[in-house]
Amino acid sequence: MVAVPIAVGAWLGQKLDESAGTAPWGLLGLVFLGMAVAGLAVALMLKRYMAENPVGTVSPEARQAGRAWQAEIDERERKREAGEDTE
Description:
Number of strands: 0
Helix content: over 70%
Number of helices: 3
Strand content: under 5%
Largest sheet: none
Shape: elongated
Mean pLDDT: 93
Low-confidence stretches: none
């Protein structure tokens, strides 16, 4: 998805430069065009993935579990800073 458009652009740019005598401009231009096509392909793939896997809202249970976990981390950090850590 990324390498093929760039490689094809490089190959076509090389052939263009050989036939038209425009070295290195055909190569550079078509390599950059290949990179743009590759970027577009990746963007479309990400768009399709995000449409198939939407990010939902967080449930109250998940939010409560996250807060409890953060409280445990905060308490452990407080003990470590106070020198009370026995582990």
